[in-house]
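ok new one. same drill as before - structure tokens go in, u give me an amino acid for every spot. 248 of them this time. try not to just spam alanines like last time pls lmao
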């Protein structure tokens, strides 16, 4: 079978300067983007049921821009004025810079890691006297609380937003040669929307071990995996598959 169409279960990039656009041009492919999941903020009345006093925390750990948005949303909805001396620990420089939307950046105590939570932990450990709030979703990665507990850091998770399956009913009769997934939630959304989904000749591409595991648990056949040794990105993995497919 020759690959002609790909559906990526993520939002469409803002411009054409992205690897999927290049892949589509190079191999004359139709590449569509469609988020299989979306985020909904936890209402303030539900947040209050978590019995979290925002004023009890001297530092906040942000693992995403989404976490920043919902922390300041909840602060506003609960009429909590975030103190100027609050310390912010961000997983990356990009996340840290996003704080500029809410605080005067140069006047605040902002720390950031290189890219991973492990990097950030080194900074958190240096400031182990702080009491940390960790804004998160309902499907927070387990390694975050695990590392904080292991290093005896005083912290509290605050579930401020939920990951929800999107309605994909309009895709019922649409067929793609490859479906691309980046998270277990995307796999769950596929199964929830199409409980009678039959894979047949459809190729499943999965990024990351937890996504692979979720696909296998759902009884799906995984044809393309990334990252792999020498193949760090999903588009590189798909291109390798397409070239091998053409050779047969």
């Amino acid at each position: 079978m020759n690959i002609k169409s790909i559906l990526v279960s993520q939002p469409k990039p803002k411009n054409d300067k992205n690897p999927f656009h290049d892949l589509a041009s190079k191999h004359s492919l139709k590449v569509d983007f469609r988020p299989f999941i979306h985020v909904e903020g936890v209402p303030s009345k539900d947040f209050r049921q978590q019995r979290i006093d925002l004023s009890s925390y001297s530092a906040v750990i942000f693992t995403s821009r989404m976490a920043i948005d919902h922390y300041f949303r909840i602060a506003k909805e609960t009429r909590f004025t975030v103190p100027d001396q609050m310390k912010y620990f961000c997983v990356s420089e990009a996340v840290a810079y996003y704080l500029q939307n809410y605080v005067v950046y140069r006047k605040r105590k902002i720390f950031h890691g290189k890219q991973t939570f492990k990097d950030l932990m080194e900074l958190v450990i240096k400031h182990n006297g702080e009491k940390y709030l960790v804004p998160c979703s309902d499907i927070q990665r387990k390694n975050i609380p695990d590392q904080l507990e292991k290093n005896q850091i005083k912290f509290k998770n605050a579930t401020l937003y939920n990951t929800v399956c999107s309605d994909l009913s309009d895709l019922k009769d649409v067929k793609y040669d490859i479906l691309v997934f980046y998270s277990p939630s995307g796999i769950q959304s596929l199964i929830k929307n199409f409980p009678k989904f039959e894979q047949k000749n459809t190729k499943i591409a999965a990024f990351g071990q937890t996504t692979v595991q979720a696909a296998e648990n759902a009884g799906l056949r995984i044809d393309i995996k990334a990252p792999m040794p020498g193949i760090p990105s999903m588009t590189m993995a798909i291109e390798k598959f397409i070239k091998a497919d053409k050779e047969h």
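The chain has a mean pLDDT of 93. and btw Residues 234-247 form the longest helix (14 residues).
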